[in-house]
Amino acid sequence: MDKIGEYIRRIEIDSLWSGQKHIVWELDRKVNILSGVNGVGKSTILNKVILRLLQVVKDSCTDKPDVKLTYEPVDAVTVRFDVVRSFDRPLVHSNLLEKLADDRVATELDWQLYLLQRRFLDYQVNVGNRMIAMLTSGDPEAKAKAQEAAQARVQFQDMVDELFSETGKKIVRSSNEIQLEQFGEVLSPYKLSSGEKQMLVILLTVLVEDRQPYVLFMDEPEISLHVEWQQRLITLIRQLNPNVQIILTTHSPAMIMNGWMDAVTEVTDITQ
């Protein structure tokens, strides 16, 4: 079985566009923010790396790929990763819409939430099984360990409640699915604003990775988020999973205002 890495140490791209621009990017274990003017290649770099990772997963990579990734540990051949897309465009794939059991799914963020609902259910089952194993192990510290296993979900719920507090929305904690309550009315997540859906997608994506080491790619995650949420986003992600490596592109100064200025890399600085 291929060895799974904890994070990406280095990205090398032979040619960003049509044989031009060689990219070498040394990455930080925690947070990596790619910046630059429009058209310089930020999204292209992210997309090439994601495509390379997908090729490894499908075992269809070429002998001499134009994207080389170095992992930690160095003998790993891939990493766990997630991709969050922030643009809330209408879904246009009629075949996909016909297959969906939920006709409330109308946009790309809705689709991500739909998929995350299923992952959230699996996550809860896995955590529940771990808690049962701990409580039946005979370990005198089993109760404390079981409570710790459930802590991330509670932390996620507290985060959402606090972020959405100005509009009176709260997570329905008794539900196995993601539902919200607003002034006594139960809401589906598909009824939220684009910014609320986007924040929910990001935090849910982080939660269901169950605090394991993995890489989170985000292309301009500030889209639809107001400034305060932009400032807090990276910190919230790191609190929910301290083992995540974040790789993102941004145009927003607010994204780095909470102590992440040293994590910024200009595309021109990694171009040879």
Could you characterize the architecture of this molecule?
InterPro entries: AAA+_ATPase, ATPase_AAA_core, Bact_Antivir_Def_Nuclease, P-loop_NTPase. GO terms for molecular function: ATP binding; ATP hydrolysis activity. This is RecF/RecN/SMC protein. By secondary structure, this protein is of the alpha/beta class. The chain has 2 domains: 1-80 and 212-271, P-loop containing nucleotide triphosphate hydrolases (Rossmann fold), CATH 3.40.50; 104-211, no CATH class. The chain is 37% helix and 20% strand. It has helices at 42-58, 94-99, 108-135, 142-149, 151-163, 194-207, 227-240, and strands spanning 4-5, 7-13, 23-26, 31-35, 67-72, 78-79, 81-84, 169-171, 180-182, 185-187, 214-219, 244-249, 264-266. Helix 3 runs antiparallel to helix 4, helix 3 (108-135) runs parallel beside helix 6 and helix 5 runs antiparallel to helix 6. The longest helix has 28 residues, at 108-135.
Topology:
Blueprint: E1 4-5, E2 7-13, E3 23-26, E4 31-35, H1 42-58, E5 67-72, E6 78-79, E7 81-84, H2 94-99, H3 108-135, H4 142-149, H5 151-163, E8 169-171, E9 180-182, E10 185-187, H6 194-207, E11 214-219, H7 227-240, E12 244-249, E13 264-266
Parallel strand pairs: 1-6, 4-12, 4-13, 7-11, 11-12
Antiparallel strand pairs: 2-3, 2-5, 8-9, 9-10
Helix pairs in contact: 3-4, 3-6, 5-6, 6-7
